[in-house]
Amino acid sequence: MPRKAEDSFVVTLALRASQDDARTILLRLEIIRQIYNAVLGEALKRLRRMRASPLWQQARTMPKTVGGKPNQDRITLFREVNRTFGFTAYDLEAYATTCKNNAGFVQHLGAHETQKMAQRAFKAVQEHAFGKRGRPRFKGLRGIRSLEGKSNKAGLIWKGDRLEWGGLCLEALPASPKDTWLAEAMQAETKFCRLLRRTINGRDLFYVQLVKKGLPPRKNKNTLGKGTVGLDQGPTNLAVVADAQAHLVRLAATVEHPWAEKRRLQRALDRSRRASNPRNYNADGTVRPGPKTWVYSARGKDLQRRLAEIDRKLAAERKAAHGELQNDIIRLGDTFKFEKVSYTSFQRCFGKSTQVRGCGMFFDGLKLKAERAGAKVLEFPTRTTRLSQFCHVRREYVRKPLRQRWHVFPDGTRVQRDLYSAWLARSVEGNTLDVDQTVRSWSAADLLLRTASSCTQPARVRGLSPRHGPRSVGAGRPREGIPVRAGERKLMRGAKPQECGGRGPLAAQAVGVERSANATPGTPGLQPGE
Questions:
Q1: 374 Rama class: left (phi>0) / alpha (psi -120 to 50) / beta
Q2: For the chain, which terminal residue's Cβ has fewer other Cβ atoms within 10 angstroms, N or C?
């Protein structure tokens, strides 16, 4: 029986490594890469032989369930086949240890690091065998970027303020004395350590990730709110409706992908690659099939470094923007309801938007933070609710195409479609929509939703330039004579905490809601029902 998972969190610290220390670490990572590839190749061979055996074919023909329960005979037969062909984590750990000892790597690596890397290779092949992922690939040069131990008693050991590993002693860089969260987090027990290598602007920097036992400390400003929060997610925008607030924000609003710059670097890299490897291409310019050796010039390596640095900065900015927005949402309530959508379909249909905004990654982090804070998270299926097609006034489903971004009521008033769906999500109980509850609560939400819908005008309220205008929410182009500011980050920093309830993305949206609510009825472009 598998062990019950324990609550844990990660603390990342930067390490001070000299040139000799860095050289030793890179050598050991190269050794562990060779061991990983050896174990991966052996696991694929054993899987291939196992699938060709009669016992495996017999187990596959057996029914998966008997009487509505898993077929135990089938499970037992599969386990017997795995043990017969050595396709288990323990057998591959023993194989990895044998490879390490025969190659003379005993002085560089311990048993725990070798076994954990063997488990990593076995898990990749096992998921491939179950059909959860494709065939795993072998790691190329510098392909291993992390290495972890089994416990904090052998191998990678954290002692006070330094990491000890096989004769290496790597001190952590001093943290700020004002960081109270880090001071509280370091008091928790360390389960095991993970060494991490990051390449920043072509330079290798090393970090230690301390996996701590328990739940992470919570900052005072990120306390859980009260009430129900409905959310409606899209590939680019997010609608949030709470008891007294409604927001329509852009996911990772501060992330601006340099498409043109990245494309120029990619084309330059392709030209450099073709000039350095003419034998690897056919006469028509296509890549020659078969094994090849690629050579990169100094200019080509510099282009690779610049491309990697662009991706690293985008990932870091995306993660920071997601964290700010997640904390703002958690402060709104203690129950979160949203649809369970397929983020894979977002990737197929909205590839660029999903790549830049990271909708799936945002909601994974939101669920984790909310559950750890003690909140209730309800994901309901779209087939039984169909919130984007429902009208609570008519009490029926009204089909709307995707390009129609406004929901129009029978009396002619309208609200933004995503905000209306997020409001309906608050009334979902189980997997169905409580229509009577929506009718009872509409009088209190009518002005709130229409006011928030009027704040989707990008240049007049949110301070976004015309090219940033969220056309997917139905906002038009700004009128002449209206000032346009550069981006949303300045608006976030300029908002007063007492007016916005914080400094995050939702605080910036609250400024726009307040201005719209206080506007005179005759002000053009700020009518609630426009």
A1: left
A2: N
